[in-house]
Design a protein that fits this description.
Layout (H helix, E strand, L loop, with lengths): L4 H5 L9 E12 L2 E12 L3 E5 L6 H9 L6 E6 L2 E2 L9 E4 L11 H12 L4 H9 L15 H13 L5 E5 L7 H16 L3 E6 L10 E6 L2 E6 L1 H8 L4 H18 L1
Parallel strand pairs: 3-8, 3-9, 6-7, 7-8
Antiparallel strand pairs: 1-2, 1-4, 4-5, 9-10
Helix pairs in contact: 3-4, 4-5, 7-8
Length: about 260
């Protein structure tokens, strides 16, 4: 699919050394459906980048491609200077999936001790990550006795083990109360300030303003790659949802005109 002139010129110009993720012409097909087609993307190191869009827009597929667990039909994608899925990236990336990936029949602490051993992370990381996700009072509880939101936080703590250079977080705040959501976004910014890169997906538009850069997806297409002020200025709006709808309307009108 040919990109419009505007889409091409708005791609960020980032040198290789400062790019945590670079995708060029990425194409992903799942079943008979093209999920991503001729997709270009650059994510800067040391930033919190929000990946926003409705369910089915391709966010999870893109994240799976970044961490190397998604079969790619065309194009290329590099992560931390290496092809996505390279063995040497295994311990440099933390990945949080929408479905909790922890053991329910052992405690929170035991889960983290096990995954720390697998990753070769320091034992001190266990207590550190438990505190970072505010599970100190549940550290010795069986995961099976936790709520859905608490179980998700155990998975997030696993992703934080070893202080990865890149964190890929798929809907990490779903099911959490507003206070905990706020605290986790504060943590995300602190991690970025310390040098980590975070790619955080969400379909909650009000989380957008917490990001340093926004990627807006719809039906596998990148509608915007901007900072929040740039997005508002470009669409002459004052809210992320309003800006997103503006871009959808403009895209629809362009398709009709063609």
């Amino acid at each position: 699919m040919m990109k419009s002139t505007e889409e091409v010129t708005r791609l960020p110009r980032v040198d290789v050394e400062s790019a945590a993720i670079r995708a060029e012409g990425l194409r992903v097909v799942r079943g008979n459906r093209v999920v991503l087609d001729d997709f270009d993307l650059t994510v800067r190191r040391g930033t919190v980048t929000g990946l926003l869009g409705p369910n089915g827009s391709g966010k999870t597929t893109l994240m799976r491609a970044v961490v190397g667990v998604q079969k790619v039909a065309g194009g290329r994608i590099e992560v931390l200077g290496r092809p996505a899925g390279s063995a040497e990236l295994r311990y440099r990336i933390g990945y949080f999936t929408q479905s909790p990936s922890v053991y329910r029949d052992i405690t929170v602490r035991q889960n983290l001790q096990y995954f720390a051993a697998v990753l070769g992370a320091p034992r001190s990381d266990v207590d550190r990550t438990i505190e970072q996700v505010d599970l100190g009072s549940h550290a010795d509880d069986l995961v099976s006795r936790l709520s859905g939101g608490e179980t998700s936080r155990v998975s997030l703590a696993v992703a934080l083990l070893g202080e990865p250079e890149l964190l890929v977080l798929d809907e990490p705040t779903v099911g959490l109360d507003p206070v905990l959501r706020r605290d986790l976004w504060t943590l995300f910014r602190e991690l970025a300030d310390a040098g980590a890169t975070l790619l955080v997906s969400s379909h909650v538009m009000d989380e957008a303003e917490r990001c340093q850069r926004l990627l807006l997806l719809r039906e596998g297409r990148l509608l915007a790659d901007d900072t929040v002020p740039e997005l508002y200025a470009r669409t002459d709006t004052s809210g992320t949802e309003e800006a997103f709808l503006h871009l959808i309307d403009r895209e629809t009108h362009r398709e009709v005109a063609q």
